[in-house]
Q: What sequence folds into this?
């Protein structure tokens, strides 16, 4: 097997200037990134997509996605307005996709209602992104209170309605949390990776437990990565840790570098 293609999510540098994130990515020899609109360094709010595009092109780095349109499956005029704005920004900044994150507050528990809302929202999203040079990436969240836990729910609607500008995000953390065994490599547009240390094996997991991938990982990242690649997934594996402990580490470069080496050495 060849080395996998790593990317970095801006959650690693939530408060730092964008240029610092780019420098870190280059130092790691990473060719692709994701930007976010839910952190202090919010490039969408700064609203200078041409500047961001130029910085990335000068450094030979591709922006894979904007994270994210939140509560996408609770569709209304506000969601529509925000999605149009994100698509316009993505087009100007040469960004591939918008990540679509579901409502995650435990307020929609009926499976029938969840599917109805999901289908309605995906149809509306598809109509909008058809006018832009972007894809929508549906990211199920495995938390018990999420209104979209399983990739299969999104896949069934995308395939059934032939929504060919929509794909899914396979997030290794949420895949494990949901207990979903199914993989959908042909419809996977991006993979998010993060590890959970075995010190957390007997507690309820949350985002702050998401850190590096090493030999203490309990959510089987290496097996998930191998299965996707062996099924002909050829896209990026974007590192998306939320651990504040990791983000604040002074030697974060060496820690992430070692983790990527660990993944590569176990992948081959």
A:
């Amino acid at each position: 097997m060849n080395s996998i293609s790593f990317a970095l999510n801006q959650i690693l540098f939530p408060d730092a200037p964008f240029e610092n994130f780019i420098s870190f990515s280059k130092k790691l020899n990473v060719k692709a990134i994701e930007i976010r609109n839910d952190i202090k360094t919010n490039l969408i709010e700064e609203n200078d997509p041409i500047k961001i595009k130029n910085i990335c092109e000068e450094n030979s780095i591709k922006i894979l996605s904007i994270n994210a349109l939140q509560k996408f499956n609770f569709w209304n005029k506000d969601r529509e307005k925000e999605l149009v704005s994100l698509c316009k920004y993505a087009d100007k900044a040469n960004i591939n996709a918008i990540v679509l994150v579901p409502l995650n507050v435990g307020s929609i528990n009926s499976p029938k209602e969840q599917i109805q809302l999901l289908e309605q929202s995906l149809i509306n999203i598809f109509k909008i992104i058809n006018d832009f040079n972007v894809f929508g990436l549906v990211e199920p969240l495995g938390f018990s209170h999420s209104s979209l836990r399983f990739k299969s729910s999104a896949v069934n609607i995308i395939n059934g309605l032939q929504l060919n500008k929509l794909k899914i995000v396979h997030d290794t953390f949420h895949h494990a949390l949901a207990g979903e065994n199914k993989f959908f490599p042909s419809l996977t547009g991006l993979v998010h990776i993060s590890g959970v240390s075995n010190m957390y094996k007997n507690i309820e997991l949350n985002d702050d437990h998401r850190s590096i991938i090493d030999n203490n990982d309990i959510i089987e990242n290496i097996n998930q990565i191998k299965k996707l690649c062996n099924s002909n997934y050829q896209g990026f594996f974007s590192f998306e840790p939320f651990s504040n402990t990791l983000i604040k580490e002074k030697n974060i470069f060496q820690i992430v570098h070692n983790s990527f080496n660990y993944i590569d050495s176990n992948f081959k």
Observations:
- The chain is about 40% helix and 15% strand.
- The first strand starts at residue 5 and ends at 9.
- Residues 61 and 79 are 29 Å apart (CA to CA).
- Residues 5-267 form a domain with the TIM Barrel fold (CATH 3.20.20.150).
